[in-house]
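Step 1: inspect the first sequence and its tokens.
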Amino acid sequence: MTILGVLQNRGEIMKKICKKWMMVLIIFTILFVIGAAITSAQPYSTFVGKVVAIQRGAVSVEGVKGEVLQFAVGRNTVYIPPRLLGIGEWVRVEYRFDGRRNVGYQMKIIQPPPPKKK
């Protein structure tokens, strides 16, 4: 084999390796973009109701229609005004569902809704 033949053979091998790496890079990029779209920030949901129970790390709120949701709370939960909640207070909760539970991010104390006229 001549030196020219060896160099041509190496060039073909390098082209094959470059093509494989380009395919891997393209697949990785596509998966990265899809993953970023899936994990993009979800919008907050809002729930309005009356506080019915307070436990360590959780607050239960009964909605206007009677449904009760429990929200995980912690150091990152913002209370407006900046004080702890009391049983019977009306709140507007901004929360996200993280796959296991509702995580309360903001709890704003509000005025109770006006009673319904019959």
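Step 2: inspect the second sequence and its tokens, then contrast the two.
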Amino acid sequence: MKPKIIVIISAIFLLLLVLGCKKKSTNSENGCLSKLDFTKITYTNDVGDILMNDPTDWTNDSAWCQEEYNLFNTANLDLTGSDTNKIFTFLFPNPVATSSCLILIGDKICPVQYVIVNRSFQILDTFSIHFLGSGNVHHFIFFSDSLKYKHGEFYRIYYAAHCTRQLFFYKGHGDFQIE
């Protein structure tokens, strides 16, 4: 009788152990990255008029996942003379045929980094604009590389502005679609 009880208790313990085991999840599988929606875009025309706005695009995001921060290399940033800046950035036209104009508007010196990712969170392109003060900058981005940018797909541009007092003082994203 005792061996049967030991076998039954062992079987129950083993069953509980197996049911309690879960595959370790990563943020990119089940965390905040899985909750990102690239398909909501701010529609703009060829001259930058906003036709339909996604309120989460082209703003100062309050919180990011660690993976989003990890997109940016801040080790060698030149922050000389930089200060907290009121910036605004957006892309037009959106959806994009082959090229778009990225606008950066600000009022003080600061470096702004940009990273373009696909929905798998693979980095496709990176670039920086060192904003030199009051006014605006037009930066043209060409999306003609069909190996990177596929017709009908959605992508995301992350941006981060930095100054001597605070890295990532202004950070956000904008989603876009290739026509």
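Step 3: confirm your contrast with the notes below.
Residues 37-177 form a domain with the Immunoglobulin-like fold (CATH 2.60.40.2550). The first strand starts at residue 43 and ends at 44.
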